[in-house]
Amino acid sequence: MFVGAQLGAWSSRWNWVARPDAYDRYIDERNRSRLEARRDDILERVGQGGQLLSYAALRALAGDTNAEIPPLDPRNLDPDDLIRFLETGAKLELQSLGQVTDLKGAFLITPAEVTRIVKAMVDAALPYVEPLRQEAYLHDAAAAVGVQLT
Is the pTM of this model over 0.70? Predict the structure, then answer.
């Protein structure tokens, strides 16, 4: 038997062509799975960052007496800063969901629109912040008359 014929017989018998292909597919799938897991972790962190940024903006707008953060007066806000806050928070949250994040030029926000947005954000935050303010107020009032609330 010729060497070429023997090699051909062994190749057929031991699947020399299919085995490396199967191994390559296995390695590709393993790498793809690792990359997908990393991407999912990154997107989760980005989404949480967007939520935290949005929460920080709402907290700054509404104030937090427990943290001694006075509420911002919408009349004293720099519209550019507010727009950046809103755009960055929205962008991070959208990115975490795999949505379009290039918002440049997508919105035209006028000063009147900024005022409306700020008012809506404060109104949305008040139900969450007001109980904290009331609790802090009660503690302060009780302390003023020498009573300690638990």
Answer: no
